[in-house]
Amino acid sequence: MPGPRPALGTITVDGRKLDIFHGDTLGACMMRGSVLTTRRSRTGQLRGLYCAIGVCNDCLVSVNGVGNVRACMTAAEPGARVDTGQDPA
Amino acid sequence: MTVPKHLVVVGGGPAGLSAATRASQLEMAVTVVDEYGKMGGQYFRGRQNSTVAGSPRRFLLESPGVEIFSHGIVVDAPAHGVLSVWKQGGGVQSLTYDALVLATGACDRTVALPGWTLPGVLTAGGASTLAKAYGVAPGQRVLVAGSGPFLLAVADDLSTKGCDVQVVEATPLGTSVGGLPMIARDVAITRQTIGYLWRLGLRRVRRRYASIVTAIHGNERVEAATIHRVDQAWQPIAGSETTIEVDAVCLGFGFVPQLELAQALKCTIGYWEETSDFYVKTDEQMRTSQENVCAAGEVTGVGGMRVAAVEGRLAGLTSAYDMGLVAKLDYDAEVRQLSRQLVRARRLGDWVRHAYRPRAGLWTLADSQTMLCRCEDVTMQSAEEALACNPATPYALKTATRAGFGLCQGRVCSSYMIEWLRAQHGYRVPEEERPWRVRPPIRPVPAEEWLTDEA
Amino acid sequence: MSTIRPKDVVIIGGGIIGAACAEALSRAGLEVVLLERLGLAAGASSACQSGVGFGISMDDYTLRLHLAAVRAYRQFAADGAEVDYLHHGTVLVGPPDEETELKAGLKRLRDMSVGCEWLDAAALREAEPALSPEINGAARINEMGQVSPMRVVNEMARRAVLHGAEIHTNTELTGIDVKGGRVTAAVTSQGTISTSTIVVAAGAWSRKIGELVGLRVPVWPLKGHVLVTEPVPGMLRHYLTETRYEKTVEAVQAVDLGEDGPQSGSPQVAAVLQNLPSGQMLIGSSREFAGFDREVNRNRLAQIVTRAGYLVPGLPRLRIIRTYAGLRPWTPDGLPLIGPSQQVEGLVFATGHGGDGNTLALITARLVADLTTGQPTEIDTTPLSPDRFDMNGE
Predict the structure, then answer these.
(1) Average pLDDT per consecutive 10 residues, chain B (455 residues; last block may be shorter)
(2) Of C233, C278, C319, Cβ closest to residue A87
(3) Nearest beta carbon to residue A51 from set B126, B136, B377
(4) Do C318 and C249 reside in the same domain of the chain?
(5) C106 with C132, same domain?
(6) Does the beta-carbon distance from C233 to A68 stay under 8 Å?
(7) Residue C325 is assigned to a structural domain of this protein
């Protein structure tokens, strides 16, 4: 198993800083930081990553103020501000 | 000097890359379109160093002239010979093709059961991808539940990361034991299987057979799961339940092909009732019902990486032949050779699909509060109520409940809906089509990038 | 009209009109059978937008019909029907040179006790922030709202069944038996049903039904496109449209009616926008005659997006998740056909609603129930009589 990789920077998720590693998606980074909740569903249920390959759209988060972003398919850029629990309809 | 014929391959997994390689060797101009930045599909996530047939490294070595359109999503097939491909931040491009290979792969089969929408519940494929590509696990005590040898791979991926893993397999132990003679004929698969069993044994990963997870519990995330022993029809046996504390569940009940593009192109879709599998119908050389459109890999029937690589090669060959770039004698000879390889490669994949096929009990796990549609929050209760006045068809259920109207457009719930209607309400799948209408755009795309006003 | 045998009506068409009629007639004590060729709401009712409203340049009669229709919905929802009814009003935008005309239209509405007002720039910014800042005033008509037509269909079907109605989907009407000038049976793909009353509520397909009894029903398909966006909850607070919409309705009213129906002229596009309760935005609208073709025309979609972008500048960058086209049942005078036919006794029409099927569904059902059971109707139905058209001749 390879040794520990260096962190490439951080993203902020709901105000909390998480390290990013090379190639991370937002979803991977959040999961590593044990942030499992991504959004609230139409009737207010908590949701998180489910399919992890961009199909289900349950991993939607808001990134730098833009909503409906798939965490599992979006590269984690240093400095990104992620907000979870996007308002349901 | 003639312009080379252009082949577009949609999907950069083992099937797509193999098709691209063969076609480019036969002098076609090839473009591979894939949603990801790196090629290899799901199989090669985290296996970027592999050089087997179908791998990205082998592809790059053997086909330097192929154009790679990464981060490209096919959003429309507006006319014969044209695809509209969206690159986030890069607008929508029209890609014209003389020939097309559909290699859009598969995704996990959806199974709805109580608690399946809790944070911490992932598909087995998703968990495997996260572990292999990013080295993350959804929890510390993980339940890997479902059916099929892939569960062992997922359990291996997660236990390697240090998780405390338990496996729950719906078929009895005898099913897997019965596959050993077939596995034994393939050296690589044998080594892989022995590796899994050895490591899982070392790490004391508990495996339960003839069992299914019947409920997942928790408030804000997974906290526990209930497991029942099941009979041959996967019906839970009353009184056999046990509840274990876990913080993540990975559900793996096989894979279903991603057929939206094939449907948008009006390719004939078939259905194997026994194993609950839709697939793109092809002839033996991988041609679909649409002219100059071939298909390869999981979309023609889930069969695994090896089958995908050989089918891809055959599809690339056929595409070139149909463009007049290969002499008939050479074509026929290579087809014979590849067909023999296919027969061998398909044996294991077909056995897996059959042995671990969903049984009727799987479609009874959901209760009235279980979500059917995750996007629109439609419960199974709504579905049941809708059937009082509606025929038991996916279209009717969709219209009556709004299941399938959300962002994913039914990619998650439609397969479950179809199987539930079949198993519980006598629905019969129609001939030659998948009963779920695909309308443009095939994937969400910004209006102003997709639609240009020519007025 | 002669008395009908009680408890014996066959309704053709399981869309919003047919389902509402099934509910009203079964609630009135009649034995009702609803026949639907495919599934409930398989036609325009699942391929439309969701407005419950009216046009401010409608003539007095038509306006009163629509006002009664809109109020019927308010009551329906107030009584507890769960049909995603939203009563948030419509913001109607027009070009500056139409402001006077628009305000005059509002005055006329107020004189009819319809709640409406003019919003100046400041009020508009507050009422509808997503609207283009270049729009400095607009009308808001508070009576209007929106509803989910599919939910209405299913709710009405459910109630009809509770009142004893039978619903047969996947059942096509293949013939109508007529003896001595009156209906005696409905012949279907699943068997024959003896009946003395058949209600034709088949939307754009009503002309085909009429052919079964040698009538040329003046209903033709008028195609409309709709786009659906990703969820953007709360982006719009009202139903949003523009004065151009009514002009498009008038333009397709004015086409020549040839031997084979309306001659297609240029397609008409006008912005009609609304947020659904589940967050997606529906974007329309377009009108064109294209037979029964329901394939989406991407140029038309682009034209709709351009139009809509003038009202809501943030709209064109939203992601589209689906598009579709529906077929409105168009009539030559823009009014539906509601009521019994003199040509064939027992034949009742409830069709030809054009783009107003949603709005007029509940009131249509009430009128059909009253006309069929010999009750006085709440409004004069003469202008809606099917016999205003000559349906005879080969």
Answers:
(1) 91 97 97 95 89 92 91 96 94 97 98 98 97 95 97 96 97 95 90 94 95 97 98 98 98 98 98 97 98 98 96 98 98 98 94 97 98 97 94 95 96 98 97 95 97 70
(2) C233
(3) B126
(4) yes
(5) yes
(6) no
(7) yes
Q: Beginning with the edge strand found earlier in the chain, give each strand of the sheet holding C32-35 in spatial order.
A: C166-168, C32-35, C9-12, C197-200, C347-351, C337-340
Residue C13 within a domain: yes
DSSP state of C119: E
For C203-247, what is each residue's pLDDT tens digit? 999 999 999 999 999 999 999 999 999 999 999 999 999 999 999
- Residue C270 lies inside a defined structural domain of this protein: yes
Residue-range definition of the domain harbouring residue C310 = 90-142+220-330
CATH number of the domain at C351, please. Answer: 3.50.50.60
Cβ(C94)–Cβ(C247) under 8 Å?
Answer: no
Domain contains C63: no
Domain tally for chain C?
2
* CATH tag for B112-252 (out of 3.10.180.10, 3.40.50.150, 3.50.50.60, 3.40.30.120): 3.50.50.60
Identity of the amino acid at B342: L
Q: Is the peptide bond before B441 cis (omega within 30 degrees of 0)?
A: yes
Q: What is the pLDDT of residues C101-127, one digit of tens each?
A: 999 999 999 999 999 999 999 999 999
Q: Does the beta-carbon distance from C277 to A87 stay under 8 Å?
A: no
Write the CA distances from C267 to B64, B110, B277, C56, C92, integer angstroms.
49, 42, 43, 22, 22
Q: Are C229 and C317 contained in the same domain?
A: yes
b/e per residue, B336-373, with b = 16+ CB within 10 A? eebeebbeebbebbbebbebbbbbebbbbbbeeebbbb
Q: How many CA atoms lie less than 13 Å away from B142 in the CB half-sphere? A: 33
Percent of chain B at pLDDT > 70 equals 99
- H helical segments located in B90-243: 124-134, 150-160, 173-178, 180-184, 187-202
Q: Mutating which of B44, B108, B134 best tests the A interface, going by the most A Cβ atoms within 10 A? A: B134
Residue C299 sits in a domain whose CATH number is 3.30.9.10
Contact B119 A47 (CB under 8 A): yes
**Architecture category of domain B6-107+256-353 in CATH:** 3-Layer(bba) Sandwich (3.50)
pTM over 0.90: yes
Q: Determine whether the interchain pair C299/B399 forms a contact, defined as Cβ–Cβ distance below 8 Å.
A: no
Residue C314 and residue C271 in one domain: yes
* Neighbour count for residue A15 (Cβ, 10 Å): 8
C262 and C132 within one domain = yes
- Tell me whether strands C191-194 and C182-188 are parallel, antiparallel or unpaired: antiparallel
Q: Which chains touch B (3 or more CB pairs under 8 A)?
A: A, C
Residues C239 and C281 both lie in one domain: yes
* Interface contact flag, C279 A88, Cβ < 8 Å: yes
Please report, for chain B, the start and end positions of each structural domain, with discontinuous segments joined by +: 6-107+256-353, 112-252, 360-455
Residue C116 β-bridge partners: C141
Where does residue B218 fall: left (phi above 0), alpha (psi -120 to 50 degrees), or beta otherwise? left
Same-domain check for residues C242 and C122: yes
CB–CB of B176/B184 below 8 Å? no
**Residue C286: predicted pLDDT:** 98
In this structure, is the dihedral angle defined by the CA atoms of residues C230, C234, C239 and C240, taken in order, positive or negative? negative
Q: Do domains B6-107+256-353 and B112-252 have the same CATH topology?
A: yes
pLDDT value, residue A6: 75
Judge if the upstream peptide bond of residue C132 is cis by omega within 30 degrees of 0.
no
- Cβ atoms of C282 and C276 closer than 8 Å: yes
